[in-house]
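Human: For the file, kindly provide a plain-text protein record giving the amino acid sequence and the backbone structure tokens, at your earliest convenience.
Assistant:
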Amino acid sequence: MIDSLGLGIGAIGAGIISGGIIIIVIFTFGQVSGAHVNPALSIAAAWLGKLEWRLVPGYAFAQMAGSTAASFSLLWLIGQHASMGANIPNEVAGVTPQTAFTIEIFLSFLLMWVICGTAYHSKAAMELSAIPIGIVVGIEVMLMGPYAGAAMNPARAFGPYLALGNLTHYWIYLVGPIFGMFLGALTYKITHNDLT
């Protein structure tokens, strides 16, 4: 969206901003709520026993509502530019929805694996987990954002799609992150042998 206004931040700038914001959010709210801004993360965390299942609906509602409020605020402030920031497969570059879905699963898997290893492991340095998590988000946005959207988060994608008024590809960014993060949590249990 910013690029369409002529500011030219590109994929690298988008990655730095995305990763930086995640680092700030985790450092600011991690001790309060776990800094969950992602329903797929909340579901995987509940499956791991790191979040009570009864809290998941409230978390998901807040995450989706926050995304919606932010997206419609942008729509009101600057109008409909660059697909409202919606995560979209780059079909011009030959990325089909199915390919974007596969990429979304992999990116979400990797992100959840890093979250588990840095924030959930019994021997993790949790107070520093924001840094590797934010770096992973930033790198994934830099590398795959221009091609496959790189949401890794159903809430991140929801608001912009709603503001755009077209939910055609939203399924990619709803199902892909949930499945990918579950795989990441499952793999973490195997690779880290940390079942507590």
Remarks:
- Confidence is low (pLDDT under 50) at residues 1-6.
- The radius of gyration is 16 Å.
- Residues 3-192 form a domain with the Glycerol uptake facilitator protein fold (CATH 1.20.1080.10).
